[in-house]
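Worked problem 6 (solution included).
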Amino acid sequence: MAGGAMPRFSNEPIASRCAPGSADVPPLVMPPYVRLTQTIKHRDEHGKLLSVEIRAALGEVITQPGTVHIERVNGMLRDRLNALTRKTHAFAKRDATWDALVHLQLFEHNWIRPHRVLRLPMPAQSRRYQPRTPAMALGLTDHPWSWIAFLTTSLYTTPK
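Solution. The predicted structure is:
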């Protein structure tokens, strides 16, 4: 993609984006760079891992799919959101509540909570390492945020 721009996808059904009564419904075309793999773990009756099979669900097969990052985020969300644990009565009965819970946890994960693997050594200082968040590693901010800063910062958005 030119310039590293992210593609825009629409949540609307294709038919609603076409002219009313139009017989020309455009096909949904997946970009060639999108790939989705399925990892299947084969185990014996005692739970011992026998083999791992990787299938292409969409696009080409990736020989070494990197699932560590998404599994880490999934584990973090499952750990911090009661709505994702099994057999629980959790506080996410509506979609808006669910969206708010997930977005708040993702904000904390990326902007507030420093990650040990991202820390930088600090030569000749009182502390050995500078704690960094993923947002700091990407250059989006120069310090870890706090909940107070998050809740009191006003964001300016442009109208659609």
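Discussion: The chain has a mean pLDDT of 78.
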